[in-house]
Amino acid sequence: MTITIKGLEPTIKNLRLLNQGMEKELTDIIRGGGQFIRGEAIRSIQSGPKSGRVYKKYNPTRTHTASAPGQAPASDTGNLVSNIMSFDKGKETTMVESRADYSKFLEFGTSKILPRPFMFPASEKGAKKIQEVIVRKLNKVIEDIKK
Fold it and tell me: What's the pTM value of the predicted model, to 2 decimals?
Protein backbone atom coordinates (compact mmCIF):
# COMPACT_ATOMS: atom_id res chain seq x y z
CA MET A 1 0.00 0.00 0.00
CA THR A 2 1.27 3.48 -0.84
CA ILE A 3 0.03 6.63 0.80
CA THR A 4 0.72 9.96 -0.84
CA ILE A 5 0.11 13.24 0.93
CA LYS A 6 0.07 16.28 -1.30
CA GLY A 7 0.49 19.92 -0.35
CA LEU A 8 3.01 19.47 2.47
CA GLU A 9 5.54 21.96 1.06
CA PRO A 10 4.09 24.99 2.92
CA THR A 11 3.95 23.00 6.15
CA ILE A 12 7.55 21.81 5.78
CA LYS A 13 8.64 25.38 5.03
CA ASN A 14 6.88 26.62 8.18
CA LEU A 15 8.46 23.87 10.29
CA ARG A 16 11.90 24.96 9.05
CA LEU A 17 11.06 28.56 9.98
CA LEU A 18 9.84 27.36 13.36
CA ASN A 19 13.13 25.54 13.96
CA GLN A 20 15.15 28.63 12.99
CA GLY A 21 13.03 30.84 15.22
CA MET A 22 13.29 28.58 18.24
CA GLU A 23 16.98 27.65 18.43
CA LYS A 24 18.17 30.82 20.15
CA GLU A 25 14.94 31.02 22.17
CA LEU A 26 15.41 27.48 23.51
CA THR A 27 19.06 28.12 24.37
CA ASP A 28 18.05 31.24 26.29
CA ILE A 29 15.24 29.38 28.06
CA ILE A 30 17.57 26.57 29.11
CA ARG A 31 20.15 29.04 30.45
CA GLY A 32 17.47 30.99 32.27
CA GLY A 33 16.07 27.75 33.64
CA GLY A 34 19.44 26.89 35.13
CA GLN A 35 19.56 30.26 36.85
CA PHE A 36 15.99 29.77 38.08
CA ILE A 37 16.86 26.37 39.59
CA ARG A 38 19.99 27.82 41.22
CA GLY A 39 17.93 30.66 42.67
CA GLU A 40 15.27 28.28 43.99
CA ALA A 41 17.87 26.12 45.72
CA ILE A 42 19.43 29.20 47.33
CA ARG A 43 16.03 30.59 48.39
CA SER A 44 15.06 27.29 49.99
CA ILE A 45 18.22 27.38 52.12
CA GLN A 46 18.09 31.05 53.06
CA SER A 47 14.38 31.46 53.73
CA GLY A 48 11.44 29.75 55.29
CA PRO A 49 11.14 28.65 58.87
CA LYS A 50 13.45 25.87 59.99
CA SER A 51 12.13 23.68 62.75
CA GLY A 52 15.05 21.47 63.66
CA ARG A 53 17.30 21.47 66.67
CA VAL A 54 18.40 24.80 68.15
CA TYR A 55 21.95 24.94 69.40
CA LYS A 56 24.69 27.38 70.27
CA LYS A 57 27.70 27.69 67.96
CA TYR A 58 31.03 29.34 68.65
CA ASN A 59 33.51 31.35 66.62
CA PRO A 60 31.57 33.49 66.16
CA THR A 61 29.15 32.87 69.01
CA ARG A 62 25.59 32.51 67.75
CA THR A 63 22.42 30.47 68.08
CA HIS A 64 21.57 28.30 65.08
CA THR A 65 18.27 26.62 64.25
CA ALA A 66 18.94 23.61 62.07
CA SER A 67 16.52 22.26 59.51
CA ALA A 68 14.32 19.29 60.29
CA PRO A 69 14.42 16.18 58.09
CA GLY A 70 12.73 16.90 54.76
CA GLN A 71 13.32 20.66 54.99
CA ALA A 72 15.99 22.42 52.97
CA PRO A 73 19.18 22.91 54.98
CA ALA A 74 19.33 25.97 57.21
CA SER A 75 21.97 28.50 56.21
CA ASP A 76 24.69 29.03 58.79
CA THR A 77 28.01 30.13 57.28
CA GLY A 78 26.81 30.71 53.71
CA ASN A 79 29.23 28.12 52.33
CA LEU A 80 26.52 25.88 50.88
CA VAL A 81 24.77 28.77 49.13
CA SER A 82 28.01 30.21 47.75
CA ASN A 83 28.86 26.84 46.22
CA ILE A 84 25.68 26.42 44.17
CA MET A 85 26.69 27.07 40.56
CA SER A 86 25.01 27.16 37.17
CA PHE A 87 27.02 26.84 33.97
CA ASP A 88 26.40 26.04 30.32
CA LYS A 89 27.51 22.78 28.75
CA GLY A 90 26.46 23.60 25.21
CA LYS A 91 23.34 24.98 23.55
CA GLU A 92 21.03 22.36 25.00
CA THR A 93 22.47 21.75 28.45
CA THR A 94 22.88 23.84 31.57
CA MET A 95 24.30 22.25 34.71
CA VAL A 96 23.31 23.31 38.21
CA GLU A 97 25.35 21.79 40.98
CA SER A 98 26.40 22.33 44.55
CA ARG A 99 30.15 22.05 44.96
CA ALA A 100 30.17 22.06 48.76
CA ASP A 101 31.75 18.80 49.92
CA TYR A 102 28.79 17.96 52.16
CA SER A 103 26.01 18.72 49.62
CA LYS A 104 25.28 15.10 48.80
CA PHE A 105 24.97 14.22 52.49
CA LEU A 106 22.39 16.96 52.98
CA GLU A 107 20.48 16.14 49.78
CA PHE A 108 20.31 12.37 50.26
CA GLY A 109 21.05 11.85 53.95
CA THR A 110 23.46 9.39 55.54
CA SER A 111 23.19 6.52 57.98
CA LYS A 112 23.09 9.14 60.76
CA ILE A 113 21.02 12.01 59.32
CA LEU A 114 17.86 12.09 57.24
CA PRO A 115 17.82 14.03 53.92
CA ARG A 116 17.51 17.80 53.75
CA PRO A 117 16.85 18.11 50.00
CA PHE A 118 17.41 21.42 48.27
CA MET A 119 18.58 20.65 44.72
CA PHE A 120 15.96 18.09 43.72
CA PRO A 121 12.94 20.20 44.80
CA ALA A 122 14.45 23.21 43.02
CA SER A 123 14.97 21.19 39.83
CA GLU A 124 11.38 19.88 39.94
CA LYS A 125 10.04 23.41 40.28
CA GLY A 126 12.42 24.61 37.55
CA ALA A 127 11.38 21.86 35.13
CA LYS A 128 7.74 22.94 35.37
CA LYS A 129 8.68 26.57 34.84
CA ILE A 130 10.92 25.74 31.85
CA GLN A 131 8.12 23.72 30.23
CA GLU A 132 5.68 26.61 30.66
CA VAL A 133 8.10 29.09 29.09
CA ILE A 134 8.88 26.77 26.16
CA VAL A 135 5.19 26.27 25.39
CA ARG A 136 4.56 30.03 25.62
CA LYS A 137 7.52 30.82 23.30
CA LEU A 138 6.57 28.06 20.87
CA ASN A 139 3.01 29.38 20.64
CA LYS A 140 4.35 32.91 20.01
CA VAL A 141 6.67 31.73 17.22
CA ILE A 142 3.81 29.76 15.62
CA GLU A 143 1.58 32.85 15.77
CA ASP A 144 4.34 34.97 14.21
CA ILE A 145 4.75 32.45 11.37
CA LYS A 146 1.00 32.45 10.72
CA LYS A 147 1.02 36.23 10.16
Answer: 0.81
Q: Which domain holds residue 82?
A: 39-146
Is residue 27, in this structure, part of any structural domain at all? Answer: no
Dist. CA 84–CA 96, nearest whole Å: 7
Q: Closest Cα partner for 38 from 128, 103, 91, 98?
A: 98
SS3 content of the chain, % helix, strand, coil (to 5): 50, 10, 35
* Closest to 122 measured CA to CA, from 86, 90, 91: 86
Query: Domain tally for the chain?
Result: 1
Amino acid identity, residue 86?
Answer: S
Count of Cβ atoms closer than 10 Å to residue 39 Cβ: 15
Residue 22 domain-assigned (yes or no):
no
In a domain, 124, yes or no: yes
What confidence tens digit (pLDDT) does each residue in 44-102 have? Answer: 999 988 999 999 999 889 999 999 999 999 999 999 999 999 998 887 788 999 999 99
Q: Do the Cβ atoms of 86 and 133 come closer than 8 Å?
A: no
